[in-house]
């Protein structure tokens, strides 16, 4: 059996403030402590990899490799 959603006191769906709690920091309690650091580190590594790929494609040896040859 699927759990039912708790309705607010007036019979409608709960508001964001009711879901967030008094201090509004519900996401901090839901995520593990390492999640933010891991996400930021992976995003930074992806950015560095994209910049490195763009720079390596701009170097003269890659220009020679990818140059169109006349048919």
Can you walk through the features of this model?
This protein is mainly α. It has one domain (16-66). 61% of the residues lie in helices and 0% in strands. The protein has four helices and no strands. It is elongated, with a radius of gyration of 25 Å. The model has no long low-confidence stretch (mean pLDDT 76).
Summarize the structure.
The chain is built from four helices and no strands.
Which key features would you list for this structure?
single chain; 71 residues; mainly alpha; 61% helix
- Average of pLDDT: 76
Strand content: under 5%
Could you tell me how far the N terminus lies from the C terminus, measured between alpha carbons in angstroms? 67 Å
User: Could you say how many structural domains there are in total?
Assistant: 1
Any idea what the radius of gyration is?
A: 25 Å
Main sheet record: none
**What low-confidence regions span 5 or more consecutive residues with pLDDT below 50?**
none
Q: What is the count of helical runs?
A: 4
**Class computed from helices, strands and strand pairing:** mainly alpha
Topology summary:
Elements: H1 16-20, H2 26-30, H3 33-58, H4 60-66
